[in-house]
UniProtKB/TrEMBL annotation:
Pfam families in alphabetical order: MIP
GO molecular function, one term: water channel activity
Entry protein name: Aquaporin-like protein
Transmembrane segments: 35-59, 79-97, 128-146
Residue runs in coiled coils: none
InterPro entries for this protein: Aquaporin-like, Aquaporin_transptr, MIP
Keyword field: Membrane, Repeat, Transmembrane, Transmembrane helix, Transport
Topology relative to the membrane: Multi-pass membrane protein
Catalytic activity entry: H2O(in) = H2O(out)
Amino acid sequence: MGQPFFGKHSASNPFFGFFGPTKDAKTASALQGHLVAMSGEFVGTFMFLFLAYCGHSMVVDQSPINQAGPNGTNSATTVVYISLSYGFAVLVTVWTMYRVSGGLFNPAVTLGLIVTGNIPLVRGMLLWPVQILASMVAAWIVGAIIPGNIKSVQTTLTPTMSVAQGVFLEMVSKLRISTEGRNADVAAALPWNAMSV
């Protein structure tokens, strides 16, 4: 039979030699670690936002028209259901993916972890485009499979909140989530961080 076109997959010969052998095993293991984290972030971010957008869209479509809140906003029960759909979606996906990629799923959280030194700059720069691409793919698929307008899942500020206030509120909340390191038991702290999102 003859030799296969590509070599055997190993730490010194990643991707079956498609990219050529690496210089040393340390470089190969770093590359493999980044690729595993990137693929885990893509799958996790996609699943989180897919589940959250589906839940959000379902709640908005099923909410009664006559129970709107002030200024045409959603009623309080609708907002609670939307919050629960995002909370449970992030709880499930972070709980399943945090051992693979860290369960960041948000470029703002990734930036917070880069600034605080919890993840290396190279890893953060590799995860950013993956997270953004996964969010775009999730929105596209939800828009394709669920009837109605995908813009119903778009988050907007209240009429009384300025853009600067919204940015500051988002920044403070993400900083709080990304720097939650007081509890040494990650598995015990994870559900509470997920629900605080």
